[in-house]
Amino acid sequence: MIAFVRGNVASVRPTEAVLDVGGVGLMLHCTPGTTAELHVGSEAELAASLVVREDSLTLYGFATDDERTVFELLQAASGVGPRLAQAMLSVHTPDELRRALAAEDVTALTKVPGIGKKGAQRIVIELKDKLGPASGDVSGAAGAAGGAGGLAAPAQGWQEQVRSALLGLGWSARDADAAVERVAPMAAENGQTADVSALLKAALRTLAT
Questions:
Q1: Residue in 88, 104, 4 with CA at minimum distance from that of residue 45
Q2: Domain check: are 188 and 168 in the same one?
Q3: What average pLDDT does this structure show over 202-207?
Q4: What CATH number should be reported for the domain holding residue 86?
Q5: Cα Rg for the chain, rounded, in angstroms?
Q6: The domain boundary residue, chosen from 43, 62, 81
Q7: Is Membrane one of the keywords UniProt gives this record (predicted)?
C-alpha cells in the first residue's frame, strides 16, 4: 500500500499533478483544492491511495490523511467508485460530507454530478455511521477561491482547462460552460495570467449552490 508520495512538483493541472520521486514522475489524480496548493518546482507531500484494477494502477493524491480516509470509505457504498468519490470531495470537504450524511441531507449529496436522489438516499443509508463525526466548522473545497494557486495560464487560455476539468468530474457540457461564464469576471481581474485552480474552485462553488 502507498500511504504518501513526496517529491518535487513537476507539473500541475486542475485535477492532477505529477511529482518527481527519485527521477520517476508519478501522476496523482487530485481535487482542485489540493492542486491549488501545489507549485511547480517546490517539494510536496500528498497522502495517497492506490486504486488497482485489472488493466490499470491509478494513484489519487490528497492534501490530508482525512481526505484519503474519506475517499476510501466513500467507495464502500454501492455505486461509488474512485472517480465519483473524488467528485464528492471536489464539491464537499470531508466534514461537510459527514454533516450531510448525519443530517440525511440528500440535497447536498445530489449537488455532486452523477448522484441522483435515489443514489444519495442509498449513500446515506450505507455510510451514515461510517465516516464518523465532523471535526468542526470548515469552509468547503469549493469555497472561497482566494489565495495563490499553483497553476497559472494566460488570461485567455484558462477556459478550456477549467471546462475540461469540470467535464472530467462529471458535469455536463452545458453546466461547465455556464460555470466558466460565471467566473470569467474573476479571470479578468487577474490581468495577464489566470489562476486555473482558483477559477476551478470558484466554478465548483457556483455549481454547488
A1: 4
A2: yes
A3: 81
A4: 1.10.150.20
A5: 17
A6: 62
A7: no
